[in-house]
């Protein structure tokens, strides 16, 4: 039985002069690429024009990056970034927050629904969260290659020693990036299954409510295994990630009970 797994993988795939390709960037981009392919299948099934998907993808990329960056800067290091506002633009230095990405996506898709597609907001959210779950897995695999957002010291046999971050004397820790990545893959599979099973008579907002409750409830509990991300979290009974997860879970529960009382939509499926 393994006592631990030594993780000493380079963050870079290769570099050519000033051009550097990192695992995180590749996996981040892969999440959007795979998501586009799946959404293409969904939109074709329901007779939505592909040009709508192209515009949706643009809104998703922009709102995800802006939301994730602002979320990290304002939720986790507000004093520093408010004192150095230009560094907020330096995304390449690292620092993205999933809760900020969630808020950014919600706002971006609201603008997309209202000003571009004219598709119902909840209709869009029900479909986009399917691929967002898979994208979340790609990002957590990226965090693994970056040796970041890992867990507390542990003696479980599958623990990782993150040598790249902690040095040759690194202690074995929970690989929480993998826990979250595998959960996101399972969530993606469940949401996709539910969509195909109920697409012809689906109540708007139900898939989105499942996503909010399941993802952020899991995020709340997995945080107990994570090491502190920033100094001010030390000594807190609940960390920032947990406090930010609670409103999403509550919104998901309220949305489910509200939308479960509505009539299902009989969508016309394109042949």
UniProtKB/TrEMBL annotation:
Q: What class of enzyme is it?
A: transferase
- Write out the pathway annotation from the protein's UniProt entry: Protein modification; lipoprotein biosynthesis (diacylglyceryl transfer)
Give membrane topology per the record: Multi-pass membrane protein
Which positions does UniProt annotate for a 1,2-diacyl-sn-glycero-3-phospho-(1'-sn-glycerol) binding? 140
The record's subcellular locations are: Cell inner membrane
> Which regions span the lipid bilayer?
20-38, 89-112, 124-142, 178-196, 205-222, 242-257
One GO CC annotation = plasma membrane
Organism domain of life? Bacteria
- Keyword Zinc-finger among record annotations: no
UniProt entry tagged with the keyword Transferase: yes
Q: One MF term from GO for this chain?
A: phosphatidylglycerol-prolipoprotein diacylglyceryl transferase activity
Biological process terms from the Gene Ontology for this record are: lipoprotein biosynthetic process
Q: What is its main location?
A: membrane
- Which EC numbers does the record give? 2.5.1.145
Which keywords annotate this record?
Cell inner membrane, Cell membrane, Lipoprotein, Membrane, Transferase, Transmembrane, Transmembrane helix
Q: Which Pfam families match?
A: LGT
Tell me the protein family, please. Belongs to the Lgt family.
Function description? Catalyzes the transfer of the diacylglyceryl group from phosphatidylglycerol to the sulfhydryl group of the N-terminal cysteine of a prolipoprotein, the first step in the formation of mature lipoproteins.
Name listed for the protein in its UniProt record: Phosphatidylglycerol--prolipoprotein diacylglyceryl transferase
């Amino acid at each position: 039985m393994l006592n631990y797994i030594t993780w000493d993988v380079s963050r870079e795939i290769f570099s050519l002069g000033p051009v550097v390709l990192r695992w995180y960037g590749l996996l981040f981009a892969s999440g959007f690429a795979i998501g586009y392919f799946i959404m293409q299948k969904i939109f074709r099934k329901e007779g939505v024009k592909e040009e709508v998907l192209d515009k949706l993808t643009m809104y998703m990329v922009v709102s995800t990056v802006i939301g994730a960056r602002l979320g990290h800067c304002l939720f986790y290091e507000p004093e520093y970034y408010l004192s150095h506002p230009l560094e907020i633009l330096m995304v390449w230095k690292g620092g993205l927050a999933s809760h900020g990405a969630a808020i950014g996506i919600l706002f971006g898709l609201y603008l997309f629904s209202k000003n571009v597609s004219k598709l119902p907001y909840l209709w869009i959210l029900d479909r986009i969260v399917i691929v967002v779950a898979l994208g979340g897995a790609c990002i957590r695999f990226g965090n693994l290659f970056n040796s970041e957002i890992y867990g507390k010291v542990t003696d479980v046999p599958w623990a990782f020693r993150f040598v790249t971050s902690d040095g040759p004397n690194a202690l074995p820790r929970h690989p929480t990036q993998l826990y979250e990545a595998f959960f996101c893959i399972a969530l993606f599979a469940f949401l996709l299954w539910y969509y195909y099973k109920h697409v012809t008579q689906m109540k708007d907002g139900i898939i989105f409510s499942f996503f909010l409750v399941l993802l952020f409830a899991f995020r709340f509990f997995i945080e107990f295994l994570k090491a502190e991300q920033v100094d001010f979290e030390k000594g807190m009974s609940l960390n920032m990630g947990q406090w930010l997860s609670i409103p999403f879970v509550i919104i998901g529960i309220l949305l489910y009970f509200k939308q479960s009382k509505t009539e299902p939509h009989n969508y016309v499926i394109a042949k």
